[in-house]
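Changelog-adjacent note: as of this version, every example in the card shows the full chain rather than a window. The one below runs 209 residues end to end.
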Amino acid sequence: MKSKYLVTAVLASTLFNTTYAKEGHQQHDAHEHGHAQLNIAQEGSTVTMQFISPAMNIVGFEHHPKTEEQEAQVKQAIKQLENGSALFGFPKKAGCKLASAKVETELMEAHGDHDDDHHEKDHHEEKKHHDKAEKHHEEEHHDEHEEESHSEFEVEYSFNCSQPKQFHQLQVRLFETFKGIEEIRTQYISDKGQQGFELTPKVSVFNLP
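Full-length structure tokens:
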């Protein structure tokens, strides 16, 4: 991620990956359908979060949008993910408000790249339309690449809390919005230490140390 404000969450992410690596989870194995990661770091009155999920959990596919409907699904998912106030429930006394949210996904980027590739391919076909065998090979390679793609949604949130000491509990509502999520591996870190959680649709609230 490119945001400057998530220095502490990057630290949390590092600790998260280290913790699960010891349990047999490797960082590159984190892309598992149904599973997601949530790293939370608290520094004073600021709470930063890093949410990472396979695109399959969010929109039901991981290739670039092929239709207008799929493109609309991705745009709708981005809007939902940006609404951090609806996805996370803080204690009212903590006075935590969403300061910023940034969503990144290869799906939209890949869609733009695909359009460029498509135009280049059309140009290529106009010049070498007689070479059908080469065209067929390129299309097969493209389809295989799509099938092997592992796109994700990665979101950064920043919350400002007027009474940070009252931030002792968090309700995660991601399960309600995105039915494809079955489990969220969560890591919380602050000056008090760190703690890991396994959240599910039935257990979506956790108490902080």
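Structural remarks: Confidence is low (pLDDT under 50) at residues 1-16, 18-29, 110-130, 132-148.
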